[in-house]
Write a structure and sequence with these properties.
The protein is of the alpha/beta class and about 200 residues long. Helices cover about 45% and strands about 10% of the residues. It has a single domain, classed as Rossmann fold (3-Layer(aba) Sandwich), CATH 3.40.50. Strands 3-2-1-4-5 form a five-stranded parallel β-sheet. The longest helix has 16 residues.
Length: about 200
């Protein structure tokens, strides 16, 4: 299992939002294609992609009610995605993360200059990843990277993702789509996943 956060979900689920530049500030070559390829590869390997509810809420904030409903429907149609809540076990993990910083006489935000609200959201995402024993978090967020590093969880950024092979430049093709069983993200046909 892996976790994908809002920085990676945004190009996948909200293609109307511009993709931020890479670490050097330059545009990331074929950003959406990289994420589509990642999802295709994870689906092929039968690796579940956890979408933490705090990350999902970040995606939905400016989507509006109708678009939010469609995003949720699309995620629930694909067997590769699993929406996971911030639950009791994750709350215990967040408390432990914060307590560890306070016990070491650091600020509760650690070395981050982000707002306390953002740090709490990011810790919730990492805590959800930790309680589900994920192998990696896909994110371009520096705070997620720092928090996950302390939790010993690998973080993979957008520029770390391989470019898809040239002959695989199709948009988010999942197993069964050719037979019409699995719709693409953004496909308005509304077909159900029968796999």
């Amino acid at each position: 299992m892996v976790v994908i956060d809002a920085t990676m979900l945004m190009p996948l689920l909200r293609p109307d939002i511009p993709i931020p530049g890479g670490p050097s500030g330059t545009p990331i070559e074929k950003a959406k294609e990289r994420i589509d390829h990642l999802v295709k590869e994870l689906e092929r390997d039968k690796t579940k992609i956890i979408v933490p509810t705090p990350a999902l809420s970040e995606i939905l904030v400016r989507a509006g009610a109708e678009a939010s409903g469609k995003i949720i429907e699309h995620l629930q149609k694909f067997a590769v995605f699993r929406i996971e809540p911030f639950d009791t076990r994750a709350a215990i993990e967040v408390a432990a993360m914060t307590r560890e910083l306070l016990d070491s006489r650091q600020r509760k935000r650690g070395t981050s200059n982000s707002t306390w609200t953002k740090i709490k959201f990011d810790r919730q995402i990492v805590a959800i990843a930790k309680v589900h024993n994920v192998t990696a978090i896909y994110s371009d967020d520096d705070d997620i990277r720092q928090i996950a590093g302390r939790a010993k969880i690998k973080v993979i950024g957008l520029t770390d993702l391989p470019l898809p092979p040239e002959d695989a430049q199709l948009s988010f093709v999942l197993t069964g789509e050719a037979e019409g069983r699995v719709p693409k993200i953004g496909d308005e046909r509304g077909q159900e996943n029968k796999a």
